[in-house]
Design a protein that fits this description.
The protein is mainly α and about 100 residues long. The chain is built from 6 helices and no strands. It has helices at about 5-25, 30-35, 40-55, 60-70, 75-80, 85-100. Helix 2 crosses helix 6 (about 85-100) and helix 3 crosses helix 4. The model has no long low-confidence stretch (mean pLDDT about 90).
Length: about 100
């Protein structure tokens, strides 16, 4: 596999991940993803924005979130996000402390 093929395959896998998170499993809450895996859709959008910047392309936080969420973030949040329980918020505090710097 050459570098071009690898990049094309990685891009296809990333697009499939976004499709899975946005279309197939919008019920998977960001807080649950953070608690379990240490990253969420917002992390993906930040990484996308950072990669664009490294390539000399300027994307706002809002623009990168719309790419990852497939719609404006506020629309996705209002449609799919649920209120986090106290237990989930406490687990998030623990998970966040463990993952600080690991997802950057």
């Amino acid at each position: 596999m050459d570098d071009t093929q690898r990049t094309q395959i990685e891009a296809a896998a990333f697009r499939r991940l976004l499709q899975h998170l946005m279309q197939d499993r919008p019920d998977a809450q960001n807080i649950d993803m953070m608690n379990l895996a240490g990253f969420c859709r917002n992390c993906l959008s930040r990484w996308y924005q950072e990669a664009a910047a490294e390539a000399g392309i300027s994307l706002s936080k809002s623009e990168s979130r719309e790419i990852v969420y497939g719609m404006p973030y506020e629309e996705w949040r209002d449609t799919h996000q649920t209120e986090a329980s106290a237990a989930k918020l406490a687990a998030f505090d623990t998970a966040f402390a463990q993952n600080v710097g690991k997802t950057d």
